[in-house]
Amino acid sequence: MNAIFDALSHPIRREVLELLKRGGMTAGELADHFPVSKPTMSGHFAKLKSAGLILGENRGGTIIYTLNLSVLEEAVMGFMNRVRAGQSASTRTCPPKGETA
Amino acid sequence: MNAIFDALSHPIRREVLELLKRGGMTAGELADHFPVSKPTMSGHFAKLKSAGLILGENRGGTIIYTLNLSVLEEAVMGFMNRVRAGQSASTRTCPPKGETA
DNA sequence: TAGCTATTTAGCTAATACGCTAAACAACAA
DNA sequence: TTGTTGTTTAGCGTATTAGCTAAATAGCTA
């Protein structure tokens, strides 16, 4: 939980997650999207990875990072549900089961 | 966006939001739930307030904080939708409109 | 082997964040 | 006015974070 929200607190790291939504990208490709050095980006990747939000696959010299969406979903939606618990239907994200949207 | 995710990065601040889900509480009531000093809690309230996540109403000497859920919803769900965009139906949070859950 | 590309690690600086105590401020009661 | 309660502000110490450059590591190609 903590590591995940910590990881989400930096705008570059949130944007990395967005870039990965369509599939894997190499560390270099990702780094090229941001105006900071590659070592700095490597630190951001490390934080995202240790939070479990991305996975790194080593493909001979280059590393392909992919989004681990389920971990993000579970942490963020779990928190939102805890904050919303007991709220009225008007603020629910989804309709109750068995009802039409 | 940034201020909101920054505010969410500290576990005490997330828990404050959860405590406020059922209604307003005074700064002192909130502070009593945590093992840190009141000045420290005051700093956490200030951060939550400047992010727009809570509102403080001054009722003669004591301050009542309330959750501003819509700001939290908009930021967090907005981000989740950006990260999910283009994902398959199996990972969607809600069923498409007009379908039964 | 050497050389090239991709990425991380090491080491540093500067800025930010979090905690504390003591003091200040505001509202109310005696 | 004095005291009491509730809360924030001021000031400080320490830890963490984010950025940099330079160097190290890993894998490929020739």
> What pattern of helices and strands is seen along the backbone of chain A?
HHEHHEEH
CATH fold-type name of chain A: Arc Repressor Mutant, subunit A
Range of helix content of chain A: 40-55%
Strand order of the largest sheet of chain A: 1-3-2
Whole-number mean pLDDT of chain A:
90
- Name of the level-1 CATH class of chain A: Mainly Alpha
Question: Pairing-aware structural class of the strands and helices of chain A?
Answer: alpha+beta
User: Which regions of chain A are unreliable across 5 or more consecutive residues at pLDDT < 50?
Assistant: none
Largest sheet of chain A: 3 strands, antiparallel
Show the largest interface. Answer: A-B, 37 and 37 residues
Shape summary of chain A: elongated
Assembly of the depicted chains: homodimer
In total, the number of domains of chain A comes to: 1
The separation of the N and C termini of chain A measures 31 Å
Strand residues, percent of chain A = 5-15%
